[in-house]
Amino acid sequence: MLDPKEIKNMQIRVTGQLGAGVTSKDVVLAIIAKIGTAGGTGHAIEFAGQVFEDMSMEGRMTVCNMAIEAGARVGMVAVDDTTIDYVKGRPYAPNESQWPQAEAYWRTLYSDDDAVFDTVVEIDGSQIAPQVSWGTSPEMVVDITQSVPTPDQAIDEAQKRVGYAHIPIWV
Question: Are 107 and 76 in contact (CB under 8 A)?
């Protein structure tokens, strides 16, 4: 018999405004660079803050889809008008008579203002630049304004061995 473990709750709050050219993929790569590919292990991540409130539905789906790359079991953004507008009228959406009840329920899917999370990560979205992946793991990423770290700057031997194996000048 399976012995499911209780999932911990993590909130990742990204505040402020994104700069020109910064996409949802840059946001999630910056998050993974900060918490690592195991940072969300055993967690459900709720993405919150102005950056996600301003993000398109497609951008939100990109971020939530990549939550697994941070080790999370699931990622979500609270339902709001952006979500409702995206779903309404799509195939498999509730029909007109079912819509009010469905929308009312969906709008309950958010964390209360006083919710307690096991982990909270705060990031200033105005400090996120476009990201460049340099290695073999999603956490191996730098701002476009930075240089790829050299092997002697690697976090550990595993990163040095795996992260630089594909770069012939350092092998």
Answer: no
